[in-house]
Amino acid sequence: xxxxxxxxxxxxxxxxxxxxxxxxxxxxxxxxxxxxxxxxxxxxxxxxxxxxxxxxxxxxxxxxxxxxxxxxxxxxxxxxxxxxxxxxxxxxxxxxxxxxxxxxxxxxxxxxxxxxxxxxxxxxxxxxxx
Amino acid sequence: xxxxxxxxxxxxxxxxxxxxxxxxxxxxxxxxxxxxxxxxxxxxxxxxxxxxxxxxxxxxxxxxxxxxxxxxxxxxxxxxxxxxxxxxxxxxxxxxxxxxxxxxxxxxxxxxxxxxxxxxxxxxxxxxxxxxx
Lengths: 130, 133
Fold this sequence. Notes:
The complex is a heterodimer. Helix content of chain A is 52%, strand content 17%. Chain A is built from 4 helices and 5 strands; from the N terminus they run E-E-H-E-H-E-H-E-H. In chain A, strand 1 and strand 2 form a beta hairpin. The relative contact order of chain A is 0.15. In chain B, a hairpin with a 3-residue loop joins strand 4 and strand 5. Chain B has a 5-stranded antiparallel β-sheet, with helices on one face. In chain B, 37% of the residues lie in helices and 32% in strands. In chain B, helix 1 packs antiparallel against helix 2 and helix 2 packs antiparallel against helix 4. Chains A and B meet through helix 2 and helix 3 of A and helix 1, helix 2 and helix 4 of B.
């Protein structure tokens, strides 16, 4: 069965969606990611959708579900790389992806994840060095 | 309204929804639609195709390119499914009978220029949309 690969990088999971997903593939990704978070104790999930030419309500819902489920499992989700035309269309469709954190690209997304995971430790160091 | 080309594709399975997106994208690109307009019409087609598969229990899409006086794409989704009892309710954002967000019909209406919904309970549903270039 066709699957979207999930890569592990330290305490984060990375997913790059490069195919036009049919609905079942999107559902499978959602299940696989949930299982991987639980197995690995990953603290963050980064989903790169820069290759996606459309995000319809189904895929939008999948992204929202992944974000909510991973939050319950103590992991942050960041969706990165949405094409401008996709963003314009999504909003007109009526989806604003509330509850889904986004970043412009992979670098910015990783930065966001690192901050949200290490934020607490950094602030401790900050006060130590003052 | 001159139809310059027309093709009909099945809309029965999930794979057909992907195929609908591909066909509509190709035609829109060929007609010289901007990337944003391509994305809008493809997204609308994806929503309507999913409705045809899930709620209409399968059907077909007729894709026509229009040329003269205006250039555009016309999509007709037709099924012989159970039909929609209350059209106004079905078009309202947030209304859903399935597991979706209820943005399918109302949302796709916002993504096109012309939208016509006809449905008879027990006979089926026909949605016609046009996106002008």
